[in-house]
Amino acid sequence: GNVAQQLETRVSAVVGALSGVERRRLCVGLDSWHAAAVSCEGLHFRIFMSDGPHGVNTRHHQQRYGTTAFPTGINLASSWDVALVREVATAIAAEAKEIGVNLLLGPCVNIVRHPLGGRNFETYSEDPHLAARMAVAFIQGVQQAGVGACVKHFACNNQEELRKQITVEVSERTLREIYLPAFEAAVKESHVAAVMAAYNQVNGTYCCVNGHLLNEILKNEWGFQGIVISDWGGCKQIGQSLFAGLDLKMPGPANQDDISSLRAVPDRVVDQSAARLVRTVLRFGCAKPFTGIAASPVKCAGQVRHRINCD
Fold first, then answer.
1. What is the pLDDT of residues 188-234, one digit of tens each?
2. Residue from 227, 256, 253 nearest 241 by CA
3. How far apart are the C-alpha atoms of 84 and 74, rounded to whole Å?
4. 266-307 pLDDT, tens digit each
5. How many angstroms separate the CA atoms of 249 and 231, rounded?
6. pLDDT of amino acid 63
7. Pick the catalytic residue: 51, 231, 247, 258?
8. Which of 177, 242, 272, 293 is most buried, with most CB under 10 Å away?
9. Residue 127 designated active-site
10. Bridging pattern class, strands 201-202 and 205-206
């Protein structure tokens, strides 16, 4: 429609005004939680991220702000209530906006593969269909409130032990029937803003350089238009990762290895990621002054209301 066309026109204008160096700098975070600072039509935009599958995490703020601790993913999924999940997500997004966060690092949709999984509580289910329904509802609730969602961790991040070293050996059929449906629904049904690439390897290739997952399946087959973000510290070589389909290395800032690696990446590859980053930052980027919220959750009427609704 006209809105989509107008967005693409703005994206092209912003990317076209950037130098090659500036486009490359977009592909690495500014610091631990900020990325993709751009100017458009006299306004300054940037992405400000926070963890948040079950509440906005404010530990990285210099000041402490009270936010609500909502029921965890596995508890919400146990309700089988998509309306409730959407309502919770909308409330989380409202609190995110109050402290300037515009990209929420959630939901987590990894499959519960083993009962001893260290982050089973954070995700939804061992059932890919249930996980997909919960993910769609959560993302819709967050993004309809004007905050981007980042579905994670793509893919097969189903254990915490040695998660940065292990390789998950999985057949293509099992991958698509069990481990990918929730991600696919997030992309195709909810038009999720971002996808986080996991730490682990899948079939011997780390997710941040896994072209089969990022380029072939996510971007080409599913038509994903958002940004692919590395899990924090999961991208070892930004140049190689950009070729494989990653768009943003987190955290920043860029080090000398990043700068050298980016110089060797062709413009056509960099420009694709730059356009995705600019599209996301214009879609959800905050151009409003930061105001903050009450330090005590008891004094924040919105948070009190959220707690009552979750009882």
1. 999 999 999 999 999 999 999 999 999 999 999 999 999 999 999 99
2. 227
3. 13
4. 999 999 999 999 999 888 875 443 333 333 332 333 454 454
5. 8
6. 57
7. 231
8. 242
9. no
10. antiparallel
